Amino acid sequence: MKAAIKGDVSFFAKEIEAACGQDVLTCYQCRKCTMGCPMAFKMKVKVNEMMRAVQLGRKEDVLAGDTMWWCVSCETCATRCPQGIEIVEVMDVLREMAIKGEYYIPVESMKSFHEVFLNSVRSYGRLYEMGFAMDLNLALLDPLKDAGLGPVMFSKGKLKLLPHKVKNLESVKKIFENVKKIEELQE
Amino acid sequence: MKYAYYPGCSLESSAKEYDLSIRACCGLAGVDLVEIPDWVCCGASSAHATSHLLSIALPAKALVQTEAMGLHQVIAPCVACLTRLKVASMEMDEDEKLKSNVEKVLETPYQGNVKVRNILDVFLNDVGLDRVKMAVEKPLKGLKVACYYGCLLTRPPHIAQFDDVENPHSMDDLMRAVGAETVDWSFKTDCCGVSMSLAETDVALDLTNKVLEGAKDAGADCVAVACPLCQSNLDLRQKDIGNKFGAFYDLPVLYFSQLMGLAFGATTRDVGLEKVIVNPFPALGAI
Fold this sequence. Notes:
The complex is a heterodimer. Chain A is an all-alpha fold. Chain A has 2 domains: 11-100, Alpha-helical ferredoxin (Fumarate Reductase Iron-sulfur Protein, Chain B, domain 2, Orthogonal Bundle), CATH 1.10.1060.10; 108-180, no CATH class. Helix content of chain A is 56%, strand content 0%. Chain A has 11 helices and no strands. Chain B has a 4-stranded parallel sheet, sandwiched between helices. The chains are: A mainly alpha, B alpha/beta.
């Protein structure tokens, strides 16, 4: 069998390092990350395999992969990594790259989760929990999901029917607008 | 002892009892909380998955506001908020360019002398175990508590800088100081899966089930938590877990501050005990 690595494959790892300061090239495949990962049972590509793919410059495979979308950011991997790689920061960068690059996202529901969440923050300045849950269910095409929990939470005084808007909503809009402006300038 | 207080979105609705019990405990222990006026959501757990700058700018707003209040320490009881505020403060300290970008986003300068504090840390180290013990009026005698730390109280260690990362004991220390017994168990720092709880419920149930099973097997009467996301996931999903695994735990999941508040002599109403879904009164009956 011929090895099929051509040229410098470290470009992807370097791109990630530039974005978050984490050097994936130092990973030596001890697999502590995957062993401790509570979500490994859902991942087609396990955490250590994803790290190896990054080292090999397989950008397309990684960004279209499912690893970072199952990651729950529990930080177990990063805590145990003998090379001190903050793997969750790598996951964050990969999610950001996958969204910006309009890659296919295998766990579509998690992308909806983040979009709907940030919409709520953008509109009210705070998370409107009930609206968030209902909008998410609509995005997941499952409007009655968890409908039984609503009355239980309401009877316990745990659900607010109306959003609590911050008074200075203009300042929140500004945050989102300014972030966009600065990010566009950097690109 | 005066601190800025950042309740966060959960403490306004689904975790109202955490807010109530924190305020009750702080009042009884002489910790002065001043709520940040018109605070804005910290963006957890979505901003950091979509834009790094946004994930720093949103929590940085609370830091800037703390400074404007003339205070140097801010308490965020929600562990997700706590982590985002800490990350923002640490990254801006280390990275001048990031700090200047955040200042541009917020259109306000930031001096950088705000310390973000974990509420357990405040009770352990600012109030101190001796004063906690002195404040006890009704010790929680005979109550077996499984202290659950979850992910972010101790992880990642360079951000949390708190307790032993694999076998934490700070909450156990506090619970024992107010007269409860704490059980040894293996799931103190295992993830409960809450970030999947709404979008991929079935997956979250697998993780939640392991935690509750571990606590039950250790003989606990209740689980104590310090995170509104852990609480709602472990408390609210017990029926779903029963349906999926046939295991009906009926295990109350309480905030450590609810238990501490009761020991300090607060009423069940003061600490919002009736807001918990799995009825905690039978377990607490003996007290």
